[in-house]
Amino acid sequence: MDFKQTLRQYRAALDAFSRGDPAPVKKVFSHRDDVTLANPFGPAVRGWARAAAALDFASSRFRDGEVPKCELVAEYVTSDLATILEIEHWRAKVSGRDEVSDFTLRVTSTFRMENGEWRLVHRHADPILTAHPDGPLRSVGNS
To answer: pLDDT at residue 16 above 70?
Structure first.
């Protein structure tokens, strides 16, 4: 499967996830011990068992949803590693609420070629999309 096909599969899996079904996303993920996941529902985790549990928990917080749009900000693809930065637009009922909420996530995803197929090895999603009110933060060592 080429990387573009993997991205289409990944985005369709996110749509299912927004309706409470983690299975398609779990299928895209690597099942190795070095997989990492950081999502807004909990701490960053490492290892397939922990990532799978975190995916189950996060998907249980969603229902009646959809991910109608993913904006690709950047894509870096080599023969065996790919990283993308996207802005994901979600609509779902979240955490038992009856109303549908619109929300946007800033997401970095890294894929690795495993046995001839692209597998997700890292996903970091957060809702931070605006600049800090005090302006950009300085890096350590910059003055």
So the answer is: yes
